[in-house]
Design brief:
Rossmann fold, 7-stranded mixed beta sheet, globular, 5-stranded mixed beta sheet, 12 strands, alpha/beta
């Protein structure tokens, strides 16, 4: 079975909710397509003296509620349709957590694991050189994403500032603390997701203390999801995985020890005291909570019937196909959709922007409290919509977000 095009998947999700809202054809058409997109060629001098040309993208999906905002991915399998889909999801995500930003996304087709630090820096700076006229603190604000880091964001911010002729800390978020970053950003995606899981657990009578959790993906979001689940909520992490495979221990895994093992060996596999497990088998474990923190479309129409978790939390973007959504909803599995569950990242990025503009830093406690307020309100708005329209949480999240975007479009006079 061929993988579903991610942008077609995002459009299909939109189409279903447009029917629920009875959107007029013109408004629907505007929401189905990106406002603008940029394709750039990036010639880079490699360490051996040769020139290699990389392909990069930036999509600004919709800016009716404010400047577009979204990460930049460095990935060998990056495609323009993936970037379009992620920019669309970011539009709905910002609207759902009610922050005054639109949706954008960027990407470069490359394998950062094969590049030296010098090559990575030249690639990062060249990307900014090519997109400079299309981004800015009041226009489009990039951030880190898959295989990009605070250091890469620092190079990009510095390059933009050089061209602008002045420090522009607010052009990029996800920066190190010493140059305008925000406390609480590193674990924001996972923390925001757990705030949603906490509310869902209350709704369905699940005691998080001792609840069993499986996590697919052990990058930044997956690791922090495991760590926060253990340290804050007292949950038992029974399985985790990365691209090379997974590990399982029904008595529980030490999330920090697993992370240190991964740093040392390059993978979670072969962690002492654990059993090997495949990524596919991890999805089908009989656990209370399944956290998806890897890549797109891992739960499909083919394996959705085998999912046993009571709550599925999508820390990754687009891990569940529309067909799988329907199956899980019929099974009574409570899915916390991606652009709700992982909105903690963009929310704290927004907090970083606010702090940059005001030249004032909040405390970590303030960041956590404000994040909790936003995520809790967004979860319950989505839950209310799910009950009102008798639809799954993803369709409800779309309904809430689209209503807010359409209201802004009507107020602007776009439609």
């Amino acid at each position: 079975m061929a993988k579903l095009n991610p942008f077609e998947m995002s459009q299909k999700q939109l189409d279903i909710c447009a029917d629920i809202l009875h959107l007029d054809p013109g408004t629907h058409a505007i929401l189905r397509t990106p406002m603008r997109e940029l394709h750039v060629s990036l010639p880079i001098r490699m360490d051996d003296g040769t020139i290699k040309v990389f392909q990069g993208f930036r999509v600004q999906y919709n800016d009716v509620k404010g400047p577009t905002k979204g990460g930049i991915r460095f990935h060998p399998d990056e495609t323009i349709d993936t970037v379009r889909a992620l920019a669309a999801w970011m539009t709905w995500k910002c609207a759902l957590v009610d922050i005054p930003l639109g949706g954008g996304k960027g990407g470069i087709i490359c394998n950062p694991k094969e590049l030296s630090q010098g090559e990575l820096e030249r690639l990062s700076r060249t990307y900014i050189d090519k997109v400079f006229q299309f981004i800015g603190p009041d226009q489009d604000i990039p951030a880190p994403d898959v295989y990009t880091t605070p250091q890469i964001m620092s190079w990009m911010m510095d390059e933009y500032s050089k061209i602008a002729g002045k420090n522009q800390f607010g052009v990029i978020t996800g920066k190190p603390m010493c140059i305008g970053g925000s406390v609480g950003r590193t674990d924001a995606t996972a923390r925001g997701g757990w705030y949603c899981v906490r509310e869902a657990a209350k709704e369905f009578g699940i005691d998080l203390k001792g609840a069993t959790v499986a996590i697919q993906g052990y990058g930044n979001a997956g690791y922090h999801a495991a760590l926060l689940g253990q340290t804050i909520f007292g949950s038992t992490i029974v399985a985790v995985s990365d691209s090379k495979g997974g590990i399982y221990n029904p008595a529980g895994l030490d999330s920090q020890a697993v992370y240190e093992h991964k740093v040392k060996t390059g993978s979670v596999i072969n962690f002492p005291g654990s059993e090997p497990i495949t990524n596919e088998d991890l999805l089908e474990l009989d656990v209370d909570i399944l956290i998806l923190a890897a890549l797109e479309h891992v739960i499909t129409g083919e394996n959705a019937t085998k999912i046993k978790a009571k709550i599925v939390a999508e820390a990754a973007n687009g891990p569940t196909t529309p067909e799988a959504d329907d199956i899980l909803y019929e099974k009574g599995v409570h899915v916390i959709p991606d652009f709700l569950c992982n909105a903690g990242g963009v929310t704290v990025s927004y907090f970083e922007m606010v702090q940059n503009f005001n030249r004032y830093c909040w405390t970590e406690e303030e960041v956590h409290e404000r994040l909790d307020e936003r995520m809790t309100a967004a979860y319950h708005a989505t839950l209310r919509g799910s009950k009102k329209y008798d639809v799954n949480m993803r369709r409800s999240a779309y309904v809430v977000a689209i209503e807010r975007v359409v209201e802004a479009m009507q107020t602007h006079g776009w439609v």
